[in-house]
Predict the 3D structure of the following.
Amino acid sequence: MLAFLAGCSSKGVVLAGENLRKLVALTARLRGPDGCPWDREQDFDSLKALLLEEAYEVVDAASARDFAGLEDELGDLLFMVLLYTRLAEEEGHFAVDDVIERVHAKLIRRHPHVFGGVQARTAEEALRSWLAVKDKEREATPDKSKESNSLLDGIPAHMPATLEAYELGVRAAEVGFDWETIEDLLDKVEEEVEELRRELKEHLPEKDRRIQEEVGDLLFAAANLARHVRSDPESCLRFANQKFKRRFRALEEEVSRRGKKVRECSLAELESIWTEVKVRFGSS
């Protein structure tokens, strides 16, 4: 269980290991005959939404650099991991030791530039080393349930569509099927916008599937644009959402200060106030 802590100080290893053991034991107790009725009622399906919620709360705390909140949310996420592991152990599939040892072995195997004879001086070289190991793993353990094995296999079906688009681009880029420059991608975005304009001139947007497809193509290109600027579409969109909320709330406050309600304002009034708010907030 403690193999993954090998890089810590001896005191840190003992403390972290003991705390992890306590949390594992606590999780087992909660699932036990005299444990919590709610925890005992959970199964692999009922925990899905909770796991995603905890993961997004971690992302929110990390984005805000709220380190007290991040410490708390990481603990909640760790508990969800241990709860899932406990469910698997109860059914005889694997235990927490197996999970830790498996990821420990995988990380050593996929970092030959750290633990082996491969050299990687940059992040790009390290990524190429990682991907080369993954390719060997795929070749060594083909999925015999499929007629053919694709680089796109294994992308979670329930992943948010923006992240799926990002991951599809990552997988294709592994074999060089990618836009060469950001400018190429910007040209692609502009191309998709023009195609959407043409469809909108010819068809009613609420009745034509081709328009939905064109919007999808535009979003797919934008998701991969995020990848090319070393970000991801979920993070980019979350920043945009937060910025919009800050500005819209400021707009509501300004409208209220003028003795009116937002619904009572014309579009021209709202746009004028919105422009003022943007100037006030700058790029934030």
About this structure: Confidence is low (pLDDT under 50) at residues 1-5. The first helix runs from residue 10 to 31.
